[in-house]
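User: Okay, second chain of the day. Same drill as before: sequence in, structure tokens out.
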Amino acid sequence: MIPLICFCACAPAGALAAEKAECDTTSSPGSRIEFVKTAANAEVREILNKDRPKENAAIPVPHFAIRTSDNKFVMTIGGQVNPIIGADLGNDLYGQSGAGISFVTSQIPVPPPTGKKSHFYINPLNAALDVQVVGLGGTDDQITGYIKVGTNGNTTGIVLQRAYVSWRGFTAGQKLTLLQDEYACQPPTIDPEGPSGCVSNVAYEVSYTSKSYNGFRFAIGLDMPSYYASSGRYLGKDYKVWEGQEVTGQPVADPTAFNQNIPDIPMWVEWGKSTYNRIRLSGIIRNLAYRDLLTGKRRYSTGWGVMVSGNLNPVEPLILYLQAVYGKGIGAYIQDIAGQPLSYIPDDASPGKMTPSPMMGLNFGVTYNISPKWQVNAMVSEARIWGVSKYAEAAATLPDHLNDYKYAIYAAGNVFYNISSYFQVGLEYLYGRRQTWNVGGASDNRVQMQFMFTI
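Assistant: Same drill. Structure tokens below.
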């Protein structure tokens, strides 16, 4: 360890003798500020890693930190710059608003635009910076503040990506939802989006995660809800007239009439021997408040979801990933269905009421670590929604029928090479197919390289 900063009241510039300027800290060694290389200090590395994000695009523990010698204060600043070069072949997903370097299968144009069935790109807009401050590091009372800002891959604007505080298992702020299983969702990808069926949603959340009790853990949270519902026009086939009122094609419910005052409640229980040998059962309950326009009443529609996820590490180089989620009204939490105005639609059999739509997400992936420098990954995923054909067609926008969504397939394979702990290169192939309810489907192929520098 070497001294970095001397926070001593005895050190105004030029005012003291040289021996005083060195700041004698022997009387209070715990307050000495040290500069730490985290790769050489397992204690500090573990303190920092404890409450950092574990998601695919997370910045790993930075190479350097400063701390007091008793770890009552630890601070680090990390960052990534990751230019991506690639090409779409067969479609122009890169040119879609909201896609770019994110391979968002729900935005694959259907049909492919004439004359625009390929797109070469160089995109440097994939960078982030984070700051982490830890107090009382290594104790039961360790508290962490974490902030991450960065670009979104489409514009030069800087946006807040993560901001939370963690203490004794409690976490509050802007983070990935507790429903997401960060370890099981997917292997690493160059693609910032990831698999279509992955449960992935950034939420304003308060949550609690327990300690491990012989491999058993549990967690529960409260998420600020966000909903993607239809406009409330009745497009069902069961009724043309309901209690004397014409209902076909007419507004029968208003999902925007009220503020949502009931939080989403994600939760899970898990058992495992290690990070990559474990199984988790998760669930979520959510409640949409809306106005029944036919009776003038306030009503509620309950959404729910269940998920099985986990990993298997049968031999040291090989890691398997599995996630399967099914539910009703949980589109805000499934990667490809988030944003589609289809999670809640008018009830076909009871005009004026809204009902949650059934949907699912499936993911399977594999990692093989050839050596500390070489890694290969492969994955396949599907997201699907049922029973919303009329509402998907009505919400579709020309010319690409963007909200006409039935299902999507996502597949990826990549290889990464670590030139050093600071610099990684990668090569990736992506395939995606989006199917609509009434105008067919379309696919896209992408080949891309990354040149990622991490501090």
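The radius of gyration is 25 Å.

User: Thanks, on to the next one.
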